[in-house]
Structures are given as C-alpha cells and as structure tokens.
Write a structure and sequence with these properties.
alpha/beta, about 10% strand, about 60% helix, about 675 residues
C-alpha cells in the first residue's frame, strides 16, 4: 500500500496518456470529470491558505499535470460526443442542462465569456506577474545574498540560519522561473479549449446531419448543448486553476494566510467601513433599490462601529517617577581631586559616536535595538573566531554632523558614515534597474553604490527587486566589518589572560606547561594577533598552545611560530577558505619563489625581505593580472605558495592587496580539492 501511494503521481500521469488513446465508458468519464473539479477546488484552497509561494513549490509541476489531465478529458469527451450521438456522460449532460437551461445559444455565449475572462484577464495577468516576478527575483539575488551576509556578520543570525536563507533565495529564483514557463500552459489550455469546442460543434453538425440523418435544427440542438456543456465542464476547473495561479504569483511573503491577512488589513480601518456605508446610502437618490442599499449600508456601518468600540485602548501604564538628580558641583571643584584627572587618561578600545539625529536608534528608552544587535554580533564573532569583542562605548557627539556616526578604536576614528533615520538603504538589483528616486550614497561597509529610499517608496522598491536595509542594520554591518579588519589591534594581554583562565578550566596542564614557561603572554599575543590579521580563527587555543609548546623551545621568531601554528590549524583554515570541499587558487611559480627566498635576509631576532624595486614591480604586475582574471569567479582570491615562502610573499603583497589570502600547501587539508585558476610568473 505504501509503495502504491509513493507512485500515485506516476500512475496518474500514465492514466492521462491513456486518456488520449483509449475510449472510456461514460461512467468512468463522469468519475474523472468530478475528480477534475475536486482537484481544482483543492488547488484553489491550497493557494489561499499558504503563507508564501514557496509553501506550494510543486505548483508549476502540478499546473502541467492538471492541464494535461484536462486536455485528456477533453479528447475523451470529444470522442464520446462524436460517436454517441452527442452523449458524453451524465455529468456533461446535467451540467449543460442546468447551466445553459437547454439553450445552446445562451450556453455558447456563457462559454465564450468564461473563456475570454480566463484568457484575457486572469491568465494574461498571471502570466505577466510571473514573468516580472521571475526577472526581479533573479536580478535581486546578489543583493539578497549580500543582505544575508550582512545579517550574518552583524550577529543577527547564525551560520545555519544564513544557509537556510540562501537556500530559500535559490528556491525562490527557481520557483518563479518555473512559474514563468508554467503560466504558458494555462494560456495554451485556454486556446486549445476554444479549438476543441469548435471541432465538437462543427464535427457534431456534420455527423448529425450526414450520418445520423437528423434535421439541421435537431443536430444543432443536440450537439450544441453537448458541446457547450462539455466546454463549460472543462472551463470551470480551468478557471479555478487560473485563479490559483494568479494567487500564487501575486502572493507576497507574509506571516499568515490570505484569509487572515484579508481580515486583518480590511478590518484595521473601521472608519473606512463607516464612510463606505454612508456613501452607499446616497445611491438611493439616483434610483438604486433602497432595501438592498439599506441592508448593505447597515452591515458596513454596524461593523465599523463595533470595531471602533473594541479598538486598541491607549496605554495607561503609570509613568515611573524620575529619580532625583544629584547636585552638580562645578568642574573646577571636581578636578581639584587629582584622582579624578586619571579618568581623562582612559582610552576606550571601541567607541561609536552618534550625531544627535541618530540617538533614537540606540536609545533603548526610545525603542532602539542597537545594543541587542551588538550583543548578538559579539556572540557570533566569539563562536566563529574565538575572540570576545570588548564592550562598545556609545556616545553622542557634537563634533560630527547630526546624521553621522563615527567608529573609533583606541580613541582614534577609523571609519564613519551617514545615516538617514527615516529612510532605507536600497541596493538596486542591477545598474539598469536602478530607476527609483532616492538620495545617492555609498554603502559604508562594502563601498557599493546605493540610495536612501524614503518610507513612502518602500513598497515600490521591494516590487522592483531592491534590497532594503534599515538604518540600524547599516551601522551594525559597518561596525562588524571594522571590528573584523581591526580585531588584531583590539586583542590585548588582558583578554589573553581571560582566554587562558577559561582554558584552565578544561586543560590546566597545557596552560601551565606553555605560558610562561615556553612563551610569554606578550609573544602569545603577537601570534594570535597575526592569525586574526589574516582572518584565521583562534578558537582552538588548546592546539595553538600545544604547537607553541613543541616549537617554542628552539624557535623564538614569532613569525615562524605563527607559520607552524597555521599548519596545525589546517582543518580550520581549509574550512574557512573552501567551498563544497574545493579551493580555487592562483599558484606562485617556482621561479618567483626562488627569487623571493634569495632576497631574504636573516637577523638574530628574525628575518626580512630585501627585494629590489624592479623585481617587486614585476611580481606585483603579474599578481594583478592573475587576480583580475579570476575576480568574476571568486569573491576572495587565494594565492598558494610553498610553506617557506608564504610569510614573505604575504608581507610583500599586503602593501598592494591587503584582502588577498595567501596560503601554503601545508595549511590545506588533504581532503580538499585544489583547482588552479592561474599562475604568477615573471
């Protein structure tokens, strides 16, 4: 039984094929006609109760199957009409007699109206909406992916949620692309219904007059009623399916089904109901029937009054009394105490200054959620990189413009941006589709062209495929990118001690044996900072200390110790810079590696690269060419070198391409597949 249910659709499709070939008895034809109406009603109700289009993702395939089923029944009923003297079963007969009252001309007019409504109004509109939705969904994919990355970076979502959202974006693109094509099935079905009806009618007249020896009017009546009844029998389910198609493609994301949204949005304005009810009463003065007008107006006015009386009541919570403020002494008297002067010497590691227009965004008393977003980012960064971001000091400032914010590290400004509080930052799906009016700007975190779009244009921008980012998310994303790029500066010895104390809870031996016996806290800070500078997580502190304990006895050069630590963290590094277990890289030619190693000068406390300017220029030019070749294929270029050359090449290339990742063969897990996209040679 279970296997039978699993293969129901396959069996149903095979049945449709048989409908095109095998003549069916009229009782079976009646059964299939009723089943067709039931399926159409089921699909219509499903389209009304889903919350978003992807909840009914099989709809495009279902559209094809039901269209084929309807055409198969049309062919079977046509065969029955032409071979059984106009009889195609009780369903067609009853439907024809009940709907068209036995009058073929009236039935033909009703049939033509239904077909035209379906073809010109519903199907045509659904086809256009599906086409536009598919185009805008595909164009908006890069912006949506960027918005997901921004939320992930800001700590609003975790990696699992980001993966689900990316999959949803891809499914949306595939769904609306399929709907764009599937809507053509409905259009073709409408055309085919007209053709089949014409064939039934003309073929029936010829057979009735020539073969059945009927009078012309008798043949017209018999075959006309049967033909129109059959046409209406197929068009009613087709109309239901067309309406379902329109509902699916016009359905926007919502937290509820269409019935709940309808009730919530229509009943949210009771005054509108009252005004509409009063306006209807005035139609009596132009001759409308008063009884019906009064009933409908009374219903609208009564419903509006009921909603007004049961509306949301104002918040009557008591306002807490403000605590009395302490007496403020003069500034000179305060600083007479020399201890108070030392407070001026404190430098916050992280500080954001806001213009006075942005204060409502961060003030919790005004409903601001900025601090909660910072906390979530701190959690996300700790899970990914193994470092705790220090508290962020928030201050209002009169030295910057009212709409500006400034991000400071250790008291010095490193980044700033402008925010329009009552606007959304809009990223167009593509340059050619950037048609909405707004204030031109640059997205501060990634330097992308954008626009500030006002609240009244939000809906239009979403329809056109823009990615809209609220002001708080803009600041959080910018802050997260700044912290990531400066994490190696923020990591101090106090935080190193906190990390060591935390590790002692699970493995005190490795901490006691390594720090400070083998390596000092200061040198450990240098190693961890260099890892963070190249975006390598330091979460596995136990492995890092074990590696330093093994090599730190003989090697005192922190650069070389960092290279050995990187090799121990090869699984972490491989996961960080691979996609689908594959790493796309640019290799460094052996001749370039030989040139670099020949220019390395060793000192007692380390080594440095003494390469002449001409050779540096050649290497940079060759690197630029290779990076430009693959910039469309990969987001972050990766250059692969031998272990001994990696650190020197990284220091050389950082002056020109600080965001390029340089890895050595020893830092890549053996399970990772390496795909070379280019080779740097001079």
């Amino acid at each position: 039984m279970k296997k039978l249910l699993n293969n129901t659709i396959a069996a149903f499709v095979i049945l449709i094929v048989f409908l095109l070939i095998i003549p069916l008895p009229t009782p079976i034809l009646d059964f299939l006609f009723i089943a067709q109406i039931g399926i159409a009603l089921l699909i219509l109700l499903m389209s009304m109760y889903v919350k978003e289009s992807l909840d009914f993702s099989i709809f495009p395939t279902l559209l094809l199957v039901t269209t084929m089923f309807r055409l198969g029944l049309n062919i079977s009923s046509t065969r029955s009409i032409l071979t059984n003297a106009g009889y195609a079963g009780e369903v067609v007969k009853v439907f024809g007699e009940f709907v068209i009252r036995g009058d073929a001309i009236v039935g033909a007019i009703i049939f033509i109206i239904i077909v035209l409504v379906q073809f010109l109004v519903i199907t045509k509109g659904s086809e256009r909406v599906a086409e536009v939705s598919a185009r805008f969904t595909l164009d908006a994919m890069p912006g949506k992916q960027m918005a997901i990355d921004a939320d992930l970076n800001s700590g609003m979502i975790d990696e699992a949620t980001a993966r689900i959202r990316r999959e949803k974006v891809q499914r949306e693109a595939a769904f609306f692309g399929a709907m764009d094509g599937a809507s053509k099935f409905v259009k073709g079905d409408s055309i085919m219904s007209i053709v089949v009806t014409a064939i039934n009618f003309l073929g029936g007249l010829v057979i009735g007059i020539v073969i059945e020896d009927m009078e012309a009017m008798e043949a017209l009546n018999v075959y006309g009623i049967a033909t129109v009844g059959d046409g209406l029998m197929s068009q009613v389910p087709a109309l239901l399916i067309s309406v379902s198609t329109g509902m699916i493609v016009t359905r926007s994301s919502s937290e509820a089904d269409i019935n709940t949204d309808f009730k919530k949005q229509f009943l949210s304005q009771p005054l509108v109901l009252i005004i509409a009810g009063i306006a209807l009463l005035f139609l009596m003065f132009i001759g409308f029937p008063p009884l019906q007008l009064i009933i409908i107006s009374a219903m609208l006015i009564g419903l509006g009054v009921m909603l007004l009386r049961g509306g949301i009541k104002p918040d009557t919570r008591e306002v807490e009394e403000e605590a009395p403020t302490e007496e403020i002494v003069s500034e000179a008297a305060y600083y007479r105490n020399i201890e108070n002067l030392y407070e001026l010497l404190n430098v916050e590691q992280l500080r954001i200054e806001f213009g006075y227009s942005l204060i409502p965004l961060v003030d919790e008393a005004s409903g601001g959620s900025f601090l909660d977003r910072v906390v979530m980012f701190r959690k996300q960064y700790a899970m990914e990189m193994g470092m705790i971001i220090p508290p962020v000091q928030l201050k209002d400032s009169s030295r910057i413009n009212p709409n500006q914010y400034s991000i400071c590290i250790k008291g010095e400004e490193v980044a700033k941006g402008d925010i329009l509080v009552d606007h959304y930052l809009g990223l167009a799906p593509s340059e050619k589709d950037d048609v909405i009016e707004g204030i031109e700007t640059i997205e501060p975190a990634f330097g992308i062209k954008a626009k500030w779009i006002s609240e009244d244009k939000k809906v239009k921008a979403e329809i056109l495929g823009y990615t809209l980012i609220d002001p708080v998310s803009v600041i959080i994303t910018h802050l997260s990118e700044v912290i990531k790029s400066h994490a190696y500066e923020i990591l101090n010895r106090a935080e190193i001690n906190n990390m060591l104390e935390n590790l002692k809870k699970t493995n005190p031996a490795i901490v006691n044996d390594t720090v400070p016996a083998v390596i000092s806290v200061g040198d450990l800070q240098k190693v961890l900072s260099r890892l963070l500078q190249e975006d390598v997580p330091i979460k596995d502190l136990e492995t890092i200390l074990e590696t330093l304990g093994d090599y730190g006895v003989k090697i005192k050069d922190t650069d070389m110790l960092t290279e050995y630590v990187r090799q121990s963290l090869k699984r972490t590094i491989s996961r960080k810079f691979t996609e689908a277990n594959q790493m796309k890289v640019i290799s460094l030619d052996p001749s370039v590696e030989t040139m670099i190693m020949g220019a390395v000068k060793k000192l007692d406390n380390g080594s440095y690269l003494a390469l002449d300017q001409n050779n540096i220029q050649k290497i940079i030019n060759a690197t630029t060419q290779q990076i430009d070749k693959i910039k469309e294929l990969v987001q972050t270029p990766v250059i692969l070198t031998s272990p001994i050359v990696r650190i020197y090449f990284k220091k050389l290339i950082d002056q020109f391409y600080p965001n390029v990742v340089v890895l050595s063969f020893s830092e890549i897990d053996t399970q990772v597949q390496i795909q070379a996209l280019g080779n740097i040679a001079v």
